Amino acid sequence: MTAVMHNLDRLDLQVQPIELGSNQLKDFKVAHLTGVAKTKLTEPQWKELGDFVKGGGTLIIDSAGGNEVFTNDMLTQLAANFPSGASQLEAPLPGDHLLFTQIAEPVEIRYRTFARHVLLENMRMPRLRGMDVNGRIGIFFSAEDISGGLVGEPVDGIVGYDPATATALMRKMILYAESGGKPVAATAQPQR
Questions:
Q1: Which own/partner pairs from 155-158 qualify as long-range (CB within 8 Å, at least 24 positions apart)?
Q2: Under 8 Å between Cβ of 166 and 4
Q3: Is 128 helix (H, G, I), strand (E, B) or coil?
Q4: Segments of the chain assigned E as strands
Q5: How far apart are CA 117 and CA 99, in angstroms?
Q6: Is the pLDDT of residue 190 over 50?
Q7: In whole numbers, what is the pLDDT of the chain averaged over residues?
């Protein structure tokens, strides 16, 4: 992702893991949280995430592999910690949302083969959900895998986006966060 953002957008990402709940998020614009199993974040962890998002940060959550247990745990905890915006996570963002129409170039949505056998509907639309925080999407949520797609491997048994789509969607979310939710023009492909 770092190379993609550098080459296409001249944006240099500084990617590093942090220990959630230790007040390390304050210096970041984007945080990515993913998981594959039962997950219960602590009160200090949710406080840090809440302060981060309310302070202008963008939180991207995806269920690695499309794990339903992680999805359900996160949706329940998001509803408890962001009660005024939780209902926004019940349905995907509409296809005409700024993220899909005015942030970089359009994306052809493709799901992994396994996901196409499981999901069965809306296979040409992304299923990203978003929660508005202070007039912009502060939390992006995907029950479908993005993280595994970012690795670039065509692994089967994953309910999620293919690698090219996962990368393009993550790029759009990062550009959205960087612009504060404003349109970002598509960039020219680098010269070879």
A1: 155/112, 156/112, 156/113, 156/114, 157/65, 157/114, 158/65, 158/66, 158/112, 158/114, 158/115
A2: no
A3: coil
A4: 30-35, 58-63, 129-133, 136-142
A5: 27
A6: no
A7: 89
Three-state DSSP class for residue 63: strand
Token digits of residue 136: 């912009």
Say what the pLDDT of residue 167 is.
94
Cα–Cα distances in angstroms (integers) from residue 105 to residues 8, 24, 171, 174, in the given order: 11, 33, 10, 14
188 within 8 A of 108, measured Cβ to Cβ: no
Give the strand pairing for 129-133 and 58-63.
unpaired
The Cα 184–Cα 153 span in angstroms is: 28
Strands 58-63 and 30-35: parallel
> Of the ranges 21-35, 37-51, 120-134, which one carries the lowest mean pLDDT score?
120-134
**C-beta of residue 21 within 8 angstroms of C-beta of residue 45:** yes
Rounded to whole angstroms, the Cα distance separating 4 from 109 reads 18
Residue-wise pLDDT tens digits, 150-159? 988 777 789 8
Q: Any idea how long the chain is?
A: 192
* Residue 53 dihedral angles phi and psi, to the nearest 5°: -70, -45
DSSP letter string, 25-61:
GGG-SEEEEEESS-----HHHHHHHHHHHHTT-EEEE
